[in-house]
Batch of 2 targets.
Target 1
Amino acid sequence: MATSTEPTFSRSPNSGTQPLLSIRKVAKSFGKNVVLRDISLAIAEGEFLTILGESGSGKTTLLRIIAGFESATSGEIWMEDERLDVLPPYRRRVNTVFQHYALFPHLTVEENVGYGLRVAKLPREEVASRVEQALAMVKMTAFAKSKPAKISGGQQQRIALARALVNRPRLLLLDEPLSALDANLRRQMQVELKSLQREVGISFVFVTHDQEEAMVMSDRIALLRRGELEQIASPREIYGQPATAYTAQFIGHTNLLQGEVKGGVVRCHSLDWPVGLPDGPVLFSLRPENLRIVDLAVGSAGVNVVRFRGRVCHQAFHGSTELLQVECEDGLKLSIRTATRENWNGDLELEFAPEDAVAVRQSEERT
Amino acid sequence: MFSRAYRAAITLPPLLWVAVFLLVPYALLFCYSFWSVSPAQTIVHAWTLDNYRDLFRVNVYLQTLFRSMWIAARVMLFSLLLGYPLAYYLSFHAGVRKELFYQLVIIPLWVSYLVRAYAWKTILGSDGVLNTLLQYVHLTQHPLDFLLYSPFAVVLTLTHIYTPFAFLPIYASLEHIPRNLVEASHDLGASPVQTFWRVIFPLSIPGVLAGATFAFVLSLGDFLAPLLLGGPSGIMISNIVVSLFGAAYNWPLGAAISLCMLLLVLALIYLSESLEKKWSFR
C-alpha cells in the first residue's frame, strides 16, 4: 500500500539511509479490543511525519507506544541501533507535547521549561541559559515568572513546545497539540510550528484528525484506519494518488466511480475511457477540481478527454470556489469544483482527463 | 426572584440551629470562664481572671496540655506516615482493586469508636492477646506493662482511629492530580522517584495539610482513649475538662481551659487553610 516509502529495516549501523526511528510490526490490543495491527513505518532524521486518522483509528495509541506510556502487545521500535520499546519513557530521547499541554501547575513557566534539564542534573548556569534560549525561541521570555494558570491556551502551547525542545530530543511527538486552539490561532501555529521544525531540524511526529492540518505541515502523512496503516506518502502524493477509496475520501473531497475494465477500456455508466489495467471491476477516484465545465465558445482543453452532459442539482458556495452537484442522464452523480458564480444551473457540458481518474482499492470493511 | 418570606423561611432554621446549639453555648462558656466557685460549691457570678491565672500557674494544666499536643502530634505524624503511602498506592497502583481497598479503609469508620478502643484494651492488656502471644513464644517471661495504660497505648489507638481521617483528604488530592502530569514528568526524563518528589508530592500538599489537621485536632480533643487506655501517665487535657465539669465541680476553670483549646484549634485550622490555599493552583 505504501508506494515510494516502504519502511527500511536495515540494522546495519552506518548506512546513510538508516531511518531515525523504525516501527516494526507493532500491534496493540486492550483485552479483546485490537487497537493497532501490524504497523511498520520508518521516520527519517529531520522529517515531519503526520499520523492522521479519525478518532478510534489508534493514532494516539501509536504515539503513546513511541513515547513509552503504553507498551506494544507485539513488535519492536528501534531508534537507530537502540531498541526503544524496552526502555521506560524517562530513558528515551523522545519528548512529547501533550494534547492539553500538561504543564506543571505548581511551577512557573521557566521552571516548567527547565524541568527536564534539572532532573538531568545539568549545571545551574547551563539550565538558565538554555531555558532563556528556549523561551526566546517561542517568544515567551516576558512570561518566565508566570504560573501556567495565568497564561492563555496559545501561550501554554508554546511553553509545552519549549519544555519539550529544550531537552534537544532526537524525536518530538505532538499529540493533537493545536486541537484546543481556535481556528485563527491554529492556522498561525501551524505555520510557526512548521518553520520551527525546519529551524531546529528535529524529527516531528504529529498526530491529528484534521486532514487539512496534515496537508499543510507534513513531509509525509501516515493515514491510519481502524488500527491499520492505510497509506503513507507525501501530501501531494497521497492527495493525487490515493491508494484506497478510504484515503481518497478522507483526504480532500472526491467522486468514486465504479467501472468495469474490458480489453483496455473502462466502462462506467455511459462513460468510457482507455486504461492500462487488466479486465475486471475497478474503482476510480476523480477529484471535483479535475472535472471541467466546457465553455462552448472556447471548446475542449484537450483531445483525449472524456466528455459528457450533466444537470446542476445543487450548488454550495465555498468562498474561493463553488461546489456543484451534477446529475447525468444515466443517473451518475458527480461533485465539481469550479470558479465562483452565482446561479449555476441548467445543463452543462463536462469533461475530465482519463489520467485524473485514479484507480483505487476498495477499502475492506472490517467489523 | 424569591419572595422575602421564602428567603426568610429557608435561612431561619439553620440560623436558629447555629444560634441555639453553637453561639449560646459558647457565650455561656465564655461567661463561665470569668466566674468562680464559692467554698460552698456555688457559682459566683462575679467577673474574675482567676481561672486564666490558674491555668498558667498550676503546672498540671499546662503540662497536660503540652502532653496532649505531643500525643496529638505523634498521632498526626503516624497517621500521615500510614495514610499517605496507603493513599498513594490506592490512587496510583491499585488498579481494579481500588474500589475494594477504598471500602476496606472506610469500613472501620462504621464501627463504634468504643468498640475499637476496647479492642486495643484486650490486645494490649497484661492478659491480652499480645502479651499472651509474646510469652507463648518465650520472647518475654512476664507481661509487658508499658503496653497498656501508657501514652504509647493512647497514641497507638488514636492512630488506628484517625488514620482514615488523614487518608481521605490525601487520597482525594492524589486523585485530583491529572495523570498526564505524571506522564509529562516521565517524558521529560524524571524517574518515578524524581516524579514523586517534584510533581506528585507538591500537588498533594493541600491534602496532607487537611489530613494532618484532622488527625491533630481530633486527637487533641480526645478523652475516651486516654480514659480507657491511658492510665495516669496518659491523661489528656480533655480528661481534665471532663473532671472539672463533673466530679471536681469547677465549671469556670473547665470553661477557661475549653476556650483556650478552642482558640488553639481555630488558630491551627486557620494556619492550615491559608497554607492549603498557597499550595493549590487551580
Target 2
Amino acid sequence: MKKTFVSMAALGVMAFSSATLAAGHERTQAEPWTPATLSSTLQGMPEGDIQRGKELHNDMFCASCHGVAGEALTHNWPALNGQRAEYTYKMLLDYQDGRRHEDSRADIMVKVAQKLTKEQMADLAMFYAAQDLPKPREHGLSDEEFKRADRIARQGDPTRLLTPCAACHGVKGEGGINETPALAGQQPDYFIRTMSAYRDGQRDNDVNKGMSQFAKHLSDDDIRLLAYYYGSIDGNTKK
Amino acid sequence: MKAIERRDFLKLLGASTLAGVSLNGKSAFAGAQPHIVVVGGGVGGATFSKYLRLADEGIKVTIIEKNRKYLRPYGSSEVITGHISMDDITVTYDALRDKYGVNFIFDEVVGIDFDKQRVRTASGSNVNYDKLVVAPGISFNFDAIEGLNQEISDIKVPHAWIPGKQTELLARQLKAVPKGGTIIIAPPPNPYRCPPGPYERAGLFAQWLKEHGNPTAKVLILDPKNGFTTDVTMLQAWHRLYNFSLPEGAREKYTEEQLATMPDHPEPGMIEWVMGDMGGRVLRVDPDAMMVETEMGQYKADMINIIPPLKAGKIALETGLADDSGWCPIERKTFESTLAKNVHVIGDSSIADEMPKSGYSANSQAKVVALQIRALLAGEEPGTPIWQNTCYALAGNTDYGMFVADVFRLQDGVIRRLPNQRYLPFDATEVQYKLSALYQQNWMRAFTDDCFA
C-alpha cells in the first residue's frame, strides 16, 4: 500500500516550480569543509539501511519530486538513483547546515533536511545508492559537439588547466571515490544549473574548491555540451 | 506542424512534466487562423489559454473577463486570518498577454449565439468564435436559505467563497468576535467548490481566536452533510489542536483502534460539528437577530459565514448550458457541452463526475481540453485523457497540513477516481504534517505560476 500512496502523494507536490519556491533564502553560518573535517564526517557516517531508506523516501514525500526510485520525473529536479551514498549523505548534511543553498530552489531541501537525523540521512543515501544509475537519454548534440564534450570529459583541456572530468567522476561518469558524485544519466538541466552555480559562486559546498576551480574555466556552451553528454552516458555498464 | 505525439500528450497532462515538454509552437493553421474565445479568466480559462498557445501559437485565443485582475480563491481563507494579504492573492494577466500572446477583452459576456458562433458583451461588441470555452466558475443559490440574498451576504452574512470585499468583511468580523463568542460556518451541500475549504476555515478561525486571547470562543459548523474530503485527517487534527470531540455519527469513519486514540475531551472544544444527520442543514437566517435556524434548532452567533448551495457560473445558466442540476453536462473526453456544439465547459461549472470542483481540477481539465481542441481543429482524433487533482488544507496552524491526491480516468463514459490511497495515513508523523503544510504554501505559488505566468 505504501507504494501506491507515494505515487499519489507525488501528485500533490508535482506542481513545484523551482522559480517560485520562496524567495529570500538565507545563507549560513556552518564552517566550510576542510578535507580533514569532511573525511572524519564521512568516516563517521552511520551505517544506513536500504529498507529504512526506502520507507523514509516514501514518508518524507521525496518521491514527489525525485521519482519512485529517485529517477527524477522531470527536468526540474536531479536524479538520485545510483548516486554514491557519501555524496547523498554529504548533500543532506550540507542542506541541513546551510552549506548548500545555491538558490531558492534549495529552500525545500533545506527545510526537509532540517527534519532528518544523521541516521536517516545515511538510510536515504543507502537506498539511492542501491538503485541503478539513471537510464541514458538522447543527447541531441551534433557529432562535432559530442566530440568536444567527450574530449573535455576524458582528456580535459590543458590550455585551460582543465583536468578530465573522468579523472574524478569515473570513465563512465559512474562516480569516483568518497563524495565525488556520479554524473551518468543526470538530468541535463540540473547539470547546467549546478555547474553554472559552481562557476558563478552561488554554490560553494565543495571541499577546497574541488569543483568550482574547474567550473570557472567553462563557458555556457561547454556546460551545456557536458550536460547532454553526461545525460546520455550509461553508467551502469561499469557497475 | 509537428503533431504532438501521444506520449507528449500524456506527459503534458501531468503538471510536473509540463515544463519538460518542448512544444514547438509552430502552427498547423498558417492560412486561416482559428479563433478560440474563452469566457472567464479564472484558473480554467487562464490555464487553457496559456497551454493552447504553447501547443500552437497559430491559434488566436481571446479571453473575455470582467475584472482586470484575478483574485485567486484557493488559499484565500488565509486572508481572513491575516496570514496573507489581498495582494498575495492578486494575480495579473500580464504574462498571459505578453508572454503567450493571449488577447484580452475586459468586458462581461451577456449572451451567446450558438448558431452564429458569436458572443455578445455588455458594452455591445460581438465576438465570433470557432470554438468557445466557457469557464465561469460558480454562482450562488441564495434562494435555498430563507432570509439570505446577495445584499445580505455582501453586508452581514458573507460567504467569501469568491474572494473580494466579502473576504475583507469576514476578516473584520473575525476581529470583532467578543470573548467567548460564537462563529457559525455553514458549508454548502455537494457538489461545491473546494471540498475541504469550509472545514479548513473552521480550523483557521479557531487557531486565530486561540492566538488572540479568545480560547473560549467557539466555531460551530452547521452542515447539511455527514462527511467531507479530508475529514478523517481533519477531525483528528481538530481533536489534537482544538479539544474537538467526535460527534457520534463520525465515529464510523475510524477503526476501534483509531478511536481509542481520540477519546472525548471532558470540556467542549473550540470546534463543534453538527452533521447532516444531526439536523445541521441551515434553513433560515435572521441577519438582524444574528440567528440561524437549522432542521434541528436555532443558534445565535456573533459572526455567520454561510456558503449557500452553489451552481454553475451565471453566464452558463443564462445561456442554457446548464441542466436541471444547475451544472453543465459535457461529453467527458473533450468537455464539449452536450447542449451546444463547439462550446466546451471546463472547471467548476462542468459536470465532471468524480472530479471535485477545485482549482487543480480546472487546471487539469484545461490542459486536456487545450490539446483536444487543438486536435479537433487540426482534424485529428482527440486523445484519451487522464486527469488529476490535489487539494491541500491546513488544520488551522501553519505547521499542520494535509491533502487529498487523486488520479481520474474515463471509464464507461464517465470520469472515475482511481482507488488509490488519497490521504495522509492516520498514523502520519509530525514531520509529514509539517511537510504537507510547507508543500501547501509552495503549491500556492507554483500552481498560480502554472496557470498565469
